[in-house]
Amino acid sequence: MNCFICGKPFSEIEFNKEIIPYCSSCDLYIRKTQSKPTESYKSEFWEESDYSEFTGTDFTDKRVQDLVLTFESWYSYFKPFLNHKKTILDIGSGTGVSCILLEKKGYNVIGVEPDSKNAQLINSKLKFGRCINCYFEDFKTEKKVEVIWITHVLEHLPSPDVLLSKCKEWLAPNGIICIAVPDCENPDMLKNSLTNPYHRYHFTKNSLRKMFQKCSYDVIKCDSLATMNRTKRRIHKVIRNAKLSNFSRITEPYYPFKLTSDKDGYEIRCVIK
Prior knowledge:
alpha/beta, Rossmann fold, four-stranded antiparallel beta sheet
């Protein structure tokens, strides 16, 4: 088996008492069992996933506030690159949190979601946008979009580079792509990702940069973000509840996450064009 980024054969390394394929050139890990990847991608995950607890809400319910906080953190990170941009294509809409909350912020949103039930529930909450029930491979649009939003999707795909290539068909000149994936430079996150049966690839910043370069994209921003510790998170929760949210946003703009240069990241966020 060869690395889809550099073309070199995967070697094998031991991690957590398990032998896994690894490309040392790209710092990329891959799921060991890769039989019939396309068929599996288009059946197993979408047949077995259940977002009914979250999808179909307007995300004001307390039980979904962790999703809202994660979205707000994404938005704070990507917002400086969204100036004067209005059209956003959300690939892999899932629970619909990005579609619905981006629309509430005034963006014209199109979602792409393989699960028909999820797409229907998301559409029941969108006022102006729409969520299209299809795989990204089958998505077509005549109008270019200014932003493509891809959060926790690339790790599921048998060929992430194919999605990045398709994005060029949809992206307007000077458009950007906003990406988030698990940070597998963190050994704990790598362990979690390896045990997730729906994660095919396990990315580091190095492997992402090499993949973007292969697909002829420029990296505008790329960072690891870790979860804030419990004490600091509670302090900022109190500050925000006390209507001092501006102070919290200035000091911790990505709450409940923070930038990190240590190998303790929860996820990697990137902006490319």
